[in-house]
């Protein structure tokens, strides 16, 4: 949703997954000094309005590539016009936010998951994701297992594009 489409009574999500009501908006005609906040490489962040943190997502579409860290993920991201989160110091927050943004009709984000080199990939998407989620539940998994758990918890596994050897797979969760 564009900021210009917001109106009194609309609700925004806070940092505690509660909603915050908009009490009013003001539109200005003519020329005025306006300020735009752009945060490089971080597309979703919180701003504080009064005493309330509000989740903000930059305009435009973001395409995130996830999977096992390394050169293969970098190559996968470049081939698919995506970016990795390997230099994102708050990657957990970014992935959690992506998983939750996918709940909306026009989330402004696309997630492609490279399953190459993951245990169980030879048995298909459902198997490799299931094994990953089990490792995470047993607290013996790594970052990739936690990322998939975020999408499971948000109910958005069905909105991810899964790839094996560069080929998009049928998503068994959609």
From TrEMBL:
User: What is the protein name stated in its UniProt record?
Assistant: Intein C-terminal splicing domain-containing protein
Gene3D superfamilies, A to Z: Hedgehog/Intein (Hint) domain
